[in-house]
Design goal:
This protein is α/β, with parallel strands linked by helices. The protein has two domains: 151 residues, 3-Layer(aba) Sandwich (Rossmann fold); 72 residues, DNA polymerase, domain 1. Strands 3-2-1-4-5-6 form a six-stranded parallel beta sheet, sandwiched between helices. Helix 6 links the parallel strand 2 and strand 3. Helix 1 crosses helix 4. The structure holds 1,6-di-O-phosphono-beta-D-glucopyranose and magnesium ion.
Amino acid sequence: MNKSDAIQAVIFDLDGVITDTAKYHYEAWKQLADELELPFDWAFNEQLKGIDRMASLEKILSQRPDGGAHVSLEQKQIWAHLKNINYQRLIQSVDESEILPGILLLFDDLKQANVQIGLASASRNAKTLLQQLKVEAYFDVIVDPAQLANGKPAPDIFLAAAAGLQVEPKYCVGIEDAEAGVQAIKSAGMFAIGVGEHDILKQADYIVTDTSELSLAVIEQHWFDTVHKFKTS
Ligand code: B16
Ligand code: MG
């Protein structure tokens, strides 16, 4: 492979890619939705993946008869805080045993190949989780979502990671489990890998059903095929 075709950075989502915290987000929102007597199930939760806390709350409140229009900002902040208390209680015991299959090997292979590693998670609990999983040291950049104007599906978080790594977006690969996240990677001009269901992640350049199918060799092969196809078409 020509050096100019080589991947220079891989930028990871956290929830649903490095660890399966999507189930804890679900439980924490479910507790709040039950208290507010609003419907909430796994299908609804799918829409919240990759979406920040306040935007997620607003989607849940949109099911009220008033569509959430009469809820004050102060009340929303209280409910968002309550969800976060539920969530932080649920993730308290997360440790390295909850790293998804294949991820540690992929981190090691990327380090070995001098490919930089970034984190583009919408979660304000991301750093705590990386510490609990004992993987924080692998990351060359961790974007703070609180500093960004626009959340996923806007490209901001992936562009901020690339800028922090000083790598052009076209040499970056993004890995996501959420539809909004795949959209963000594509809008950033990066190669997108989706982890999950084809129907949901169809905008991705390459899709795996779970993280055990991810390896540097497989990613490089699909990256090269896509770059090569683009160059020869
Ligand atoms: P927090 P990701 C996202 O993380 C989750 O997918 C999403 O469900 C959650 O609402 C969001 O983080 C904010 O999380 O409330 O902890 O700040 O998938 O971008 O790693
Ligand atoms: Mg995710």
